[in-house]
Design brief:
15% of the residues lie in helices and 49% in strands. With 367 residues, it is mostly beta strands. The protein has a 14-stranded antiparallel beta barrel with strand order 1-2-3-4-5-6-7-8-9-10-11-12-13-15. The longest helix has 39 residues. It is globular. InterPro entries: DUF6268 (IPR046235).
Length: 367
């Protein structure tokens, strides 16, 4: 038995010595590898990022959306550097506008064009005739030119025009089939100061059936209006117009004009008007309006017996209209009206017809 124990220990001791030698060699290799690594790549501590003022301390980069908030940001999330900016500079940022302010804003249309040519217009008016009444169809065309006098803020506006009036009625009425207008209107708009302004206008016209031989066909007219800008909304005006017609020779001009954001009220004589915006888009505005006007005119004509005479046609008109205004002063429109107080009258050989009321339609296009 002692012999067997001795053999066991003789086998175990060499094995333990070998294991310890291998472990020691492994530890020495690991230490050598670590030391070598430290010598090849020295370790340096990572430095913290330098301070920055792009996002001031205490102001989060992300703020959860508030479902009850609108487009505009609250001042709680605006850094002090931005919050101290002047108010008008902050308002230039669209984020400072709420939905109502954004959708109320519309571009302002220019009322005139650059250059001399301001407009080319054409319009047509139809008055219904029935029974013993005379019906009329009017066609009118004009060209408007603008010149600085001496500046564009004080322009001289020159408008030549030509019109034709086609009369339709029973043969029992002595009426020419066609009447003509040929005229040249000159208008000067002069701002005197921030409050006062002046409008002067004169027209030289030839109104005839092109058959008569009388100088009565040449008929001048004129207008003078003074305006006072009470404030940004209210304007006062007063003046006089010389129509040089047989029925209405001279009429006063007086009234108030109120201009709102989307509507305008002209409490003026002899042409009142109320207009209101109802739609707009890029380069246009759509308006509807109510207005009243004096219709008709005086023409030098040749009667059926060959005599020269002056024919005056007069009426009053209540009109509802719709127009699309375009940038630069252009527009297109259509109007529907009720015509009353109609009269057909000759001057030298008295002959008068009181015609019954009728309806009218007028449409036009202005470039």
């Amino acid at each position: 038995m002692h012999l067997n124990s001795l053999r066991y220990w003789l086998a175990i001791v060499p094995l333990c010595l070998a294991t310890e030698t291998v472990r020691a060699q492994y530890v020495d290799w690991g230490e050598t590898s670590r030391v070598a690594s430290e010598r090849q790549v020295p370790y340096e501590a990572v430095q913290p990022l330098p301070p920055t003022d792009v996002f001031p301390e205490g102001h989060p980069l992300y703020v959860p959306a508030d479902p009850t908030s609108r487009i505009s940001q609250t001042t709680a999330v605006i850094p002090p550097e931005l919050d101290e900016m002047p108010y008008d500079m902050q308002m230039e940022d669209g984020l400072q506008l709420n939905e109502d302010e954004i959708f109320k804003t519309r571009p302002v249309l220019a009322s005139s064009k650059p250059g001399v040519l301001q407009s080319v217009t054409t319009d047509s008016t139809w008055l219904a005739g029935s029974g013993d009444n005379i019906g009329m169809t009017d066609v009118l065309g004009t060209i408007t030119l603008g010149f600085p006098a001496p500046t564009r803020d004080s322009p001289l506006i020159v408008t030549p025009g030509f019109g034709m009036h086609f009369l339709v009625g029973p043969e029992s009425i002595d009426a020419p089939p066609t009447l003509y207008d040929a005229f040249l209107t000159t208008r000067w708009i002069r701002p005197l100061n921030e409050k006062w302004g002046l409008i002067l206008s004169g027209t030289a016209g030839y109104y005839s059936d092109f058959k008569q031989k009388s100088s009565d066909a040449f008929r001048p007219s004129a207008m003078a209006i003074a305006t006072y800008n009470w404030n940004k909304q209210w304007q006062l005006l007063g003046g006089v117009v010389w129509l040089n017609r047989d029925d209405f020779n001279i009429l006063p001009i007086a009234g108030l004009v109120w201009t709102g954001e989307n509507r305008k009220l002209e409490l003026t004589f002899p042409r009142p008007r109320y207009s209101q915006l109802w739609d707009y888009g890029p380069g246009y505005e759509d308006w509807w309006y109510l207005t009243g006007e004096l219709g008709g005119g005086t023409w030098s004509v040749q009667r059926a017996d060959g005599a020269n005479d002056l024919l005056t046609i007069s009426d009053f008109r209540a009109i509802v209209g719709f127009e699309r205004r375009r940038d630069g002063g252009g527009k297109s429109f259509i109007e529907f009206g009720y015509v009353f107080g109609r009269q057909f009258e000759y001057k030298y050989q008295p002959y008068t017809i009181d015609m019954s009321d009728t309806v009218m339609i007028r449409s036009g296009w202005w470039f």
